[in-house]
Amino acid sequence: MTHTLQKVFPIAAAAVLYATLASHAYADETVKIGHVAPLTGGIAHLGKDNENGARLAVEEINAKGLTINGQKVTLVLDPQDDAADPRQATQVAQRLVDDKVVGVVGHLNSGTSIPASKIYSDAGIVQISPSATNPTYTQQGFKTTYRVVATDAQQGPALANYAAKSLKIKNVAIVDDATAYGEGLANEFEKTAKALGLNVVSHDATNDKAVDFRAILTKIKGEKVDAIMYGGMDATGGPFAKQAKQLAITAKVLAGDGVCTEDLSKLAGDASDNVICSEAGMALEKMAGGPEFSAKYQKRFGQPIQIYAPFTYDAVYIIVDAMKRANSTDPAKILAAMPATDYKGVIGETQFDSHGDLKSPVISLYDYKAGKKTLLDIVKM
Length: 381
Description:
The protein is of the alpha/beta class. It has 2 domains: about 30-150 and about 285-360, Response regulator (Rossmann fold), CATH 3.40.50; about 155-280, Rossmann fold. About 45% of the residues lie in helices and about 20% in strands. The chain contains 12 helices and 15 strands. The strands form 3 sheets. A 7-stranded mixed β-sheet has the order 8-7-9-10-11-14-15, with helices on both faces. The radius of gyration is 24 Å and the shape is elongated.
């Protein structure tokens, strides 16, 4: 009896070991993709919009099923809040590295994307910003930085050209919020405006937490300009436009993508009808997959898209596309596959140049009619 048990036990133990190894071999692999945006503070609504786009992509991919190198993969979104603060952005970036994400979609702001990019570069993790437009972001020599929008070196000139050629502006004042984004965009606008012969009467700076612009606006009112270019986000751009109207300033307010949101009419009231703004990408209604994506987003989250949710959505799919082509979930192999990206998604065809910028960027120009954001023109760069 004892002899028989001695024979059986090794066989049983081997069977258990085999079953354990087999279960591990066929267990789902969990892969984390990070997302960073401001989820608190004045532009939290934009950050949540970006996160929603990324979340929708992750949910869809998991529902369809993802297999890499014969292994079933389940994606997990690792969402983080940088509060649009550069210092918090670097802390969050290190947290994502420690969480062992294979890629990052973010950050939203240029002022957070740029300092965080060094941390992702050191870790060898791909970073795709859906909305950072300052050219510096992809000019630091890092192999990890990509973006799926145009840059301010394209957006600023597009606004200036529209002001000069379509609006026939002669005299313009410039105000920026002293952030990497707002100041960078304003400077690019100013360079082109001067080259086109516009008279830049003044260039003032405020900050991204300001709520009272009356002192600057009163000075500008005395300068009798035809337009005011504002470099900043909608949380400040809305009150800026509103206070300009309250001071009976009739000059058009020109702004970039940070201001060009669905919430602007809430923030500016009827003064939004005096705003002309740009987006650093194709207009949602002109995207091949725009209407379908808009309907899916509305159904899932019960609210309309603010601005860059389609770009975070595609950014997740671009990381997964690189994962598939690399046939690996190894961050180094995903990163190595990124330069050859040729992905057709909601925002159109995405291909990158050697810096990680789009090969074929687009700028969309808008105004507001009775508070509704309305497409004016599309500029292919």
